Amino acid sequence: MATTQSTMRWTRDAIQALFDLPFNDLLFRAQQVHRDHFNPNEVQVSTLLSIKTGACPEDCKYCPQSARYDTGLEKEQLMEVQKVLEQAGRAKQTGATRFCMGAAWRNPKERDMPKLLAMIQGVRDMGLETCMTLGMLSEAQAQALAEAGLDYYNHNLDTSPEFYGDIITTRTYQDRLNTLSHVRTAGMKVCSGGIVGMGEDQKDRIGLLQQLANMPVPPESVPINQLVKVSGTPLDHLDDLDPFEFVRCIAVARILMPESHVRLSAGRETMSDELQALCFLAGANSIFYGEKLLTTANPVAEADMKLFARLGISPEQRKAKPDLFYDATAREAC
Ligand code: SF4
C-alpha cells in the first residue's frame, strides 16, 4: 500500500497539539481519518498463542515471562509443531484471520529455526495469515522466516527512547530498531507498538508514537497495550492510567498512522465494553481474540462477538488476494 504518511515527519510539538485537543475534537478528527482509510465498522481479529512460555533472560519490568521475577508462571518448552497447528485450526474455526505465535526468548536459537519454519508453513497452508514474536532477529533469521511465508513480525518499541532504560536494561532501543529494520529488509510486514501505563509521562507516550509514525514505512500493525499489572513484576503496584488518556493514545496513533491497523491489545480484559467502544470510535480496528493473550487473561471469544454485535461491528475478512509481501527491492522495527 502506498504510504502517504511515510514522507510525513511528525514533530513532538505537532503530536502534543493533538493530545491537547478537546477530547471530542480529537475523537472527531481520528474518526474522520479512520473513515478515509478503513471501513469504520470492521475490526480485524487475531489470535495469539504462546508457543514457548516463561524463563526469558530479559528483564522487561512489565513481563511475567522474565525469569527474573517470581510470578508463579509455569515455564514451558517450545511447543511441538502439530500442537501449534491444532490450535491454529481452532482459532480459524472461531473466526480469526491471523494467527500470532509468541515465544519468550531473547532471540531464537538456530536449533529452533526448523520447527518455527514448519509452524509458519503449516499455519499458512490453513489459509491464515501468520505472525510471530520471537525477540531479536539477525538478518539471516528474518530472511529465513520471510522465505517460509511469515506475513508479520511483532517487535514492540515499548515506550519512548528516553523512558526505555527505566523499563528494560538487557537490550537497547537500537537493538529493537535493528530487528525491525531486518524484518523490513526481508519483506515482511511490521507489527510494532508499545505499552502505556508503565509510569511514563505523556511526553513518553508522544515519543513512542513519534518513533513509530516517523519510520520510513510505519508499521502496518500498531498494538497499543495497557499495562497488565502482574503480581511479582516490578510494575505491579502502579496506579491505573486515566482511561481517557488511553483513548487519546489510540486516537493520536490513528491520526499519525492512518493506514495502519491500530490494535487494542493487552489490558482489554479489564476494560469495560464502553471503554472498548470508545477505542473503536477513536480508530482502533484490530483486537486479539481468544482466551489467552500470551500468559494473561483475555476476554473470552463469545463476549467479544457479543460486543461486536451490540456495536454493529463485523470481523474484517482476510482479503481474497492478500498483498502479503512487499517487494523489498522497490522500497527502501516482545
Ligand atoms: S517482553 Fe519478551 S523479551 Fe521481555 S521479558 Fe517478556 S518475553 Fe522476554
TrEMBL record:
Residue span(s) of domain Radical SAM core: 41-268
Obligatory cofactor(s): [2Fe-2S] cluster; [4Fe-4S] cluster
Catalytic reaction(s) noted? (4R,5S)-dethiobiotin + (sulfur carrier)-SH + 2 reduced [2Fe-2S]-[ferredoxin] + 2 S-adenosyl-L-methionine = (sulfur carrier)-H + biotin + 2 5'-deoxyadenosine + 2 L-methionine + 2 oxidized [2Fe-2S]-[ferredoxin]
The record's section on SMART domains has: BATS, Elp3
Q: Which residues bind [4Fe-4S] cluster?
A: 56, 60, 63
Q: Which Gene3D superfamilies match?
A: Aldolase class I
| Amino-acid positions noted as binding [2Fe-2S] cluster in the UniProt annotation, renumbered to this chain | 100, 131, 191, 263
What are the BP-aspect GO terms?
biotin biosynthetic process
Q: What class of enzyme is it?
A: transferase
Q: What is its EC number?
A: 2.8.1.6
Q: Which NCBIfam families match?
A: bioB
Mind telling me which PANTHER family this protein's record contains? BIOTIN SYNTHASE, BIOTIN SYNTHASE, MITOCHONDRIAL
Instruction: State the function annotated in the UniProt record.
Output: Catalyzes the conversion of dethiobiotin (DTB) to biotin by the insertion of a sulfur atom into dethiobiotin via a radical-based mechanism.
Q: What protein does this entry describe?
A: Biotin synthase
Organism in which the protein naturally occurs: Aliidiomarina sanyensis
